[in-house]
Specification:
307 residues; alpha+beta; Jelly Rolls; Arc Repressor Mutant, subunit A; 7-stranded antiparallel β-sheet; 4-stranded antiparallel β-sheet; 11 strands; globular; disordered N terminus; DNA-binding transcription factor activity; sequence-specific DNA binding; HTH_AraC; Transcriptional regulator, AraC family
Protein backbone atom coordinates (compact mmCIF):
# COMPACT_ATOMS: atom_id res chain seq x y z
CA UNK A 1 0.00 0.00 0.00
CA UNK A 2 1.28 3.49 -0.72
CA UNK A 3 0.25 7.08 -0.44
CA UNK A 4 0.30 7.82 -4.16
CA UNK A 5 -2.22 5.26 -5.36
CA UNK A 6 -5.65 6.49 -6.27
CA UNK A 7 -8.73 5.22 -8.03
CA UNK A 8 -11.25 7.12 -10.12
CA UNK A 9 -14.76 6.08 -10.99
CA UNK A 10 -17.76 7.65 -12.65
CA UNK A 11 -21.31 6.61 -11.87
CA UNK A 12 -22.99 5.05 -14.90
CA UNK A 13 -26.63 4.71 -15.89
CA UNK A 14 -28.57 3.16 -18.74
CA UNK A 15 -30.07 6.49 -19.87
CA UNK A 16 -28.61 10.01 -19.97
CA UNK A 17 -29.04 11.85 -16.71
CA UNK A 18 -29.25 15.62 -16.14
CA UNK A 19 -26.23 15.47 -13.82
CA UNK A 20 -22.81 13.82 -13.77
CA UNK A 21 -21.06 12.39 -10.73
CA UNK A 22 -17.36 11.53 -10.67
CA UNK A 23 -15.70 10.02 -7.60
CA UNK A 24 -12.00 9.54 -6.92
CA UNK A 25 -10.78 7.50 -3.96
CA UNK A 26 -7.37 8.14 -2.41
CA UNK A 27 -5.64 5.60 -0.23
CA UNK A 28 -4.48 7.20 3.05
CA UNK A 29 -0.74 6.85 3.69
CA UNK A 30 0.49 3.90 5.74
CA UNK A 31 1.00 6.06 8.84
CA UNK A 32 -2.81 6.23 9.11
CA UNK A 33 -3.41 2.49 8.78
CA UNK A 34 -6.75 1.54 10.30
CA UNK A 35 -7.86 5.15 10.90
CA UNK A 36 -9.86 6.05 7.79
CA UNK A 37 -12.33 4.46 5.43
CA UNK A 38 -10.89 6.53 2.56
CA UNK A 39 -10.17 10.03 1.39
CA UNK A 40 -12.44 10.73 -1.57
CA UNK A 41 -13.14 13.58 -3.96
CA UNK A 42 -16.53 13.96 -5.65
CA UNK A 43 -17.45 16.24 -8.55
CA UNK A 44 -21.14 16.83 -9.24
CA UNK A 45 -22.14 18.76 -12.36
CA UNK A 46 -25.67 19.70 -13.45
CA UNK A 47 -27.07 20.33 -16.92
CA UNK A 48 -29.51 23.01 -15.77
CA UNK A 49 -28.68 26.19 -13.84
CA UNK A 50 -30.13 26.12 -10.34
CA UNK A 51 -30.73 22.37 -10.41
CA UNK A 52 -30.34 20.41 -7.16
CA UNK A 53 -30.64 16.74 -6.25
CA UNK A 54 -32.06 15.12 -3.13
CA UNK A 55 -30.80 11.88 -1.62
CA UNK A 56 -30.01 10.23 1.70
CA UNK A 57 -26.93 8.57 3.10
CA UNK A 58 -27.24 5.29 4.95
CA UNK A 59 -25.98 4.86 8.54
CA UNK A 60 -22.19 5.17 8.61
CA UNK A 61 -19.13 6.06 10.69
CA UNK A 62 -18.10 9.65 11.43
CA UNK A 63 -17.20 11.91 8.51
CA UNK A 64 -15.93 15.35 7.69
CA UNK A 65 -16.85 16.83 4.30
CA UNK A 66 -15.62 20.03 2.66
CA UNK A 67 -17.69 21.65 -0.11
CA UNK A 68 -16.37 23.91 -2.86
CA UNK A 69 -19.09 25.67 -4.84
CA UNK A 70 -22.51 24.81 -3.45
CA UNK A 71 -23.18 23.86 0.14
CA UNK A 72 -25.64 21.18 1.22
CA UNK A 73 -28.76 21.22 3.29
CA UNK A 74 -28.41 18.16 5.49
CA UNK A 75 -30.39 16.56 8.31
CA UNK A 76 -30.08 13.56 10.59
CA UNK A 77 -33.22 13.10 12.65
CA UNK A 78 -34.16 16.50 14.09
CA UNK A 79 -30.70 18.01 13.58
CA UNK A 80 -30.12 20.19 10.53
CA UNK A 81 -27.31 22.19 8.97
CA UNK A 82 -27.35 24.53 5.99
CA UNK A 83 -24.84 26.85 4.33
CA UNK A 84 -21.73 25.25 5.89
CA UNK A 85 -18.64 24.66 3.75
CA UNK A 86 -17.40 22.17 6.34
CA UNK A 87 -19.95 19.63 7.57
CA UNK A 88 -19.18 17.17 10.36
CA UNK A 89 -21.22 14.05 11.10
CA UNK A 90 -20.82 11.63 13.98
CA UNK A 91 -21.36 7.87 13.74
CA UNK A 92 -24.97 7.33 12.72
CA UNK A 93 -27.80 4.84 13.02
CA UNK A 94 -30.18 7.03 11.00
CA UNK A 95 -30.12 8.31 7.40
CA UNK A 96 -28.64 11.68 6.53
CA UNK A 97 -31.02 13.49 4.15
CA UNK A 98 -29.35 16.07 1.94
CA UNK A 99 -29.94 18.46 -0.93
CA UNK A 100 -27.02 19.64 -3.06
CA UNK A 101 -26.33 21.44 -6.32
CA UNK A 102 -23.16 21.54 -8.45
CA UNK A 103 -20.18 21.05 -6.17
CA UNK A 104 -16.66 19.78 -5.64
CA UNK A 105 -16.34 17.94 -2.36
CA UNK A 106 -13.69 16.20 -0.26
CA UNK A 107 -14.89 13.55 2.19
CA UNK A 108 -12.94 11.82 4.95
CA UNK A 109 -14.46 8.86 6.77
CA UNK A 110 -13.14 7.91 10.22
CA UNK A 111 -13.08 4.31 11.35
CA UNK A 112 -13.44 3.76 15.12
CA UNK A 113 -9.64 3.70 15.55
CA UNK A 114 -9.50 7.01 13.69
CA UNK A 115 -12.11 8.44 16.01
CA UNK A 116 -9.96 7.81 19.06
CA UNK A 117 -6.81 9.19 17.41
CA UNK A 118 -8.38 12.39 16.08
CA UNK A 119 -11.29 13.30 18.38
CA UNK A 120 -11.34 14.20 22.06
CA UNK A 121 -15.00 13.36 22.72
CA UNK A 122 -16.63 9.97 23.23
CA UNK A 123 -18.22 8.81 19.98
CA UNK A 124 -21.49 8.21 21.84
CA UNK A 125 -21.74 11.94 22.59
CA UNK A 126 -21.66 12.67 18.83
CA UNK A 127 -23.91 9.84 17.64
CA UNK A 128 -26.40 10.92 14.93
CA UNK A 129 -24.88 14.41 14.91
CA UNK A 130 -24.73 16.63 11.83
CA UNK A 131 -23.23 20.09 12.27
CA UNK A 132 -21.28 23.03 10.93
CA UNK A 133 -17.88 21.52 11.64
CA UNK A 134 -16.19 24.88 12.17
CA UNK A 135 -18.64 25.73 14.97
CA UNK A 136 -18.69 22.42 16.85
CA UNK A 137 -15.99 21.64 19.45
CA UNK A 138 -15.65 18.01 18.35
CA UNK A 139 -14.85 18.97 14.75
CA UNK A 140 -13.41 22.50 14.90
CA UNK A 141 -9.79 21.27 14.90
CA UNK A 142 -10.24 20.32 11.22
CA UNK A 143 -11.66 23.70 10.17
CA UNK A 144 -8.34 24.98 8.85
CA UNK A 145 -8.58 22.48 6.00
CA UNK A 146 -11.33 24.63 4.47
CA UNK A 147 -8.69 27.13 3.30
CA UNK A 148 -7.36 24.60 0.77
CA UNK A 149 -10.12 22.01 0.30
CA UNK A 150 -12.75 24.72 -0.38
CA UNK A 151 -10.46 26.80 -2.62
CA UNK A 152 -11.67 26.61 -6.26
CA UNK A 153 -8.17 27.54 -7.46
CA UNK A 154 -6.45 24.65 -5.66
CA UNK A 155 -5.80 21.45 -7.61
CA UNK A 156 -6.65 17.97 -6.32
CA UNK A 157 -2.99 17.08 -5.71
CA UNK A 158 -2.44 20.23 -3.67
CA UNK A 159 -5.61 19.55 -1.71
CA UNK A 160 -4.68 15.93 -1.05
CA UNK A 161 -1.22 16.98 0.16
CA UNK A 162 -2.78 19.53 2.53
CA UNK A 163 -5.18 16.89 3.82
CA UNK A 164 -2.39 14.40 4.54
CA UNK A 165 -0.23 17.06 6.21
CA UNK A 166 -3.09 18.20 8.45
CA UNK A 167 -3.96 14.66 9.53
CA UNK A 168 -0.33 13.86 10.29
CA UNK A 169 -0.17 16.96 12.48
CA UNK A 170 -3.44 16.22 14.30
CA UNK A 171 -3.05 12.48 14.95
CA UNK A 172 -2.25 11.50 18.52
CA UNK A 173 -1.24 8.20 20.20
CA UNK A 174 -3.89 6.05 21.85
CA UNK A 175 -4.08 3.20 24.35
CA UNK A 176 -7.00 1.04 23.28
CA UNK A 177 -5.92 0.28 19.70
CA UNK A 178 -5.90 -3.52 20.08
CA UNK A 179 -9.33 -3.62 21.71
CA UNK A 180 -10.84 -1.32 19.10
CA UNK A 181 -9.48 -3.39 16.23
CA UNK A 182 -10.68 -6.65 17.79
CA UNK A 183 -14.22 -5.35 18.22
CA UNK A 184 -14.28 -3.79 14.76
CA UNK A 185 -12.99 -6.94 13.09
CA UNK A 186 -15.55 -9.09 14.91
CA UNK A 187 -18.39 -6.77 13.87
CA UNK A 188 -17.42 -6.83 10.20
CA UNK A 189 -16.95 -10.62 10.26
CA UNK A 190 -20.61 -10.91 11.36
CA UNK A 191 -20.15 -14.42 12.76
CA UNK A 192 -21.62 -13.75 16.20
CA UNK A 193 -25.28 -14.15 17.08
CA UNK A 194 -25.32 -12.37 20.46
CA UNK A 195 -23.51 -9.73 22.48
CA UNK A 196 -22.22 -12.52 24.72
CA UNK A 197 -20.68 -14.26 21.68
CA UNK A 198 -19.16 -10.98 20.49
CA UNK A 199 -17.63 -10.31 23.91
CA UNK A 200 -16.15 -13.81 24.01
CA UNK A 201 -14.68 -13.39 20.53
CA UNK A 202 -13.09 -10.11 21.61
CA UNK A 203 -11.79 -11.60 24.89
CA UNK A 204 -13.66 -8.98 26.91
CA UNK A 205 -16.33 -8.90 29.55
CA UNK A 206 -19.69 -7.61 28.35
CA UNK A 207 -19.23 -4.54 30.52
CA UNK A 208 -15.85 -3.74 28.91
CA UNK A 209 -17.30 -4.35 25.46
CA UNK A 210 -20.13 -1.91 26.23
CA UNK A 211 -17.63 0.75 27.34
CA UNK A 212 -15.38 0.32 24.30
CA UNK A 213 -18.32 0.43 21.88
CA UNK A 214 -19.93 3.55 23.35
CA UNK A 215 -16.64 5.41 23.63
CA UNK A 216 -15.14 4.64 20.22
CA UNK A 217 -17.98 3.30 18.04
CA UNK A 218 -20.84 5.50 19.23
CA UNK A 219 -23.44 2.84 20.02
CA UNK A 220 -24.07 -0.22 22.16
CA UNK A 221 -22.73 -3.59 20.93
CA UNK A 222 -26.26 -4.82 20.25
CA UNK A 223 -27.15 -1.84 18.08
CA UNK A 224 -23.81 -2.08 16.23
CA UNK A 225 -24.46 -5.75 15.45
CA UNK A 226 -27.94 -4.91 14.18
CA UNK A 227 -26.60 -2.01 12.10
CA UNK A 228 -24.02 -4.31 10.45
CA UNK A 229 -26.71 -6.84 9.59
CA UNK A 230 -28.93 -4.12 8.17
CA UNK A 231 -26.13 -2.53 6.15
CA UNK A 232 -25.17 -5.84 4.57
CA UNK A 233 -28.77 -6.17 3.38
CA UNK A 234 -29.15 -2.58 2.17
CA UNK A 235 -25.83 -2.68 0.33
CA UNK A 236 -26.75 -5.92 -1.43
CA UNK A 237 -30.03 -4.37 -2.57
CA UNK A 238 -28.37 -1.17 -3.81
CA UNK A 239 -25.69 -3.05 -5.76
CA UNK A 240 -28.15 -5.38 -7.46
CA UNK A 241 -30.65 -3.03 -9.02
CA UNK A 242 -33.95 -4.72 -9.69
CA UNK A 243 -33.45 -7.31 -6.97
CA UNK A 244 -36.10 -8.02 -4.34
CA UNK A 245 -35.62 -7.33 -0.65
CA UNK A 246 -36.05 -11.04 0.08
CA UNK A 247 -32.99 -11.69 -2.11
CA UNK A 248 -30.92 -9.00 -0.37
CA UNK A 249 -31.98 -9.82 3.19
CA UNK A 250 -29.15 -11.00 5.45
CA UNK A 251 -29.31 -14.63 6.62
CA UNK A 252 -29.31 -13.52 10.26
CA UNK A 253 -32.86 -12.13 9.98
CA UNK A 254 -35.53 -14.50 11.29
CA UNK A 255 -38.12 -13.37 8.76
CA UNK A 256 -39.15 -10.49 6.55
CA UNK A 257 -41.22 -8.88 9.32
CA UNK A 258 -38.10 -8.51 11.47
CA UNK A 259 -36.20 -7.03 8.54
CA UNK A 260 -39.02 -4.55 7.87
CA UNK A 261 -39.05 -3.42 11.51
CA UNK A 262 -35.30 -2.85 11.50
CA UNK A 263 -35.42 -1.12 8.13
CA UNK A 264 -37.99 1.30 9.52
CA UNK A 265 -35.79 1.95 12.56
CA UNK A 266 -32.58 2.59 10.61
CA UNK A 267 -34.00 4.39 7.57
CA UNK A 268 -37.25 5.83 9.04
CA UNK A 269 -39.35 4.31 6.25
CA UNK A 270 -40.48 0.94 4.94
CA UNK A 271 -38.36 -1.00 2.40
CA UNK A 272 -40.99 -0.48 -0.30
CA UNK A 273 -40.97 3.29 0.27
CA UNK A 274 -37.17 3.35 0.04
CA UNK A 275 -37.14 1.26 -3.14
CA UNK A 276 -39.58 3.69 -4.78
CA UNK A 277 -37.25 6.66 -4.24
CA UNK A 278 -34.56 7.84 -6.63
CA UNK A 279 -31.04 7.70 -5.23
CA UNK A 280 -29.18 9.88 -7.74
CA UNK A 281 -25.99 10.25 -5.69
CA UNK A 282 -25.88 7.26 -3.39
CA UNK A 283 -26.49 4.54 -5.98
CA UNK A 284 -23.72 5.75 -8.30
CA UNK A 285 -21.33 6.42 -5.43
CA UNK A 286 -21.86 2.98 -3.85
CA UNK A 287 -21.33 1.24 -7.19
CA UNK A 288 -18.14 3.21 -7.79
CA UNK A 289 -16.90 2.54 -4.27
CA UNK A 290 -17.55 -1.18 -4.54
CA UNK A 291 -15.83 -1.37 -7.92
CA UNK A 292 -12.62 0.46 -7.04
CA UNK A 293 -12.43 0.25 -3.25
CA UNK A 294 -13.70 -3.24 -2.55
CA UNK A 295 -16.67 -2.42 -0.33
CA UNK A 296 -19.71 -0.31 -1.07
CA UNK A 297 -20.23 1.26 2.37
CA UNK A 298 -18.06 2.52 5.20
CA UNK A 299 -19.62 0.21 7.75
CA UNK A 300 -18.49 -2.81 5.70
CA UNK A 301 -14.83 -1.71 5.60
CA UNK A 302 -12.49 -3.91 7.65
CA UNK A 303 -10.52 -2.38 10.54
CA UNK A 304 -7.25 -2.25 8.59
CA UNK A 305 -6.66 -0.26 5.43
CA UNK A 306 -6.59 -1.92 2.03
CA UNK A 307 -3.32 -3.45 0.97
Amino acid sequence: MGDERHHSAVGAASAPLPYRLAAEFREPPIMFEGCFTSFYHVSLDMDQPGMVVHDQLQPEWANIRFFCGGTPEAAIGEQRVTGAQFVGTGPSSLPCHFTIGPVRMWGIGFLPLGWTRFFGEDAGACANLVCDGAAHPAFARFAGLSDTLCDPEAGIEEQYAALVAAMARLMRPTRDDARIQRVHGALVASEHASVHDLADACAMSIRTLERVCMRYFGFSPKLLMRRQRFMRSLTSFMLHRGSRWTEAMDDHYHDQAQFTREFREFMTMNPSEYAALDHPILASFMEARARVWGSAAQTLDPPLDHS
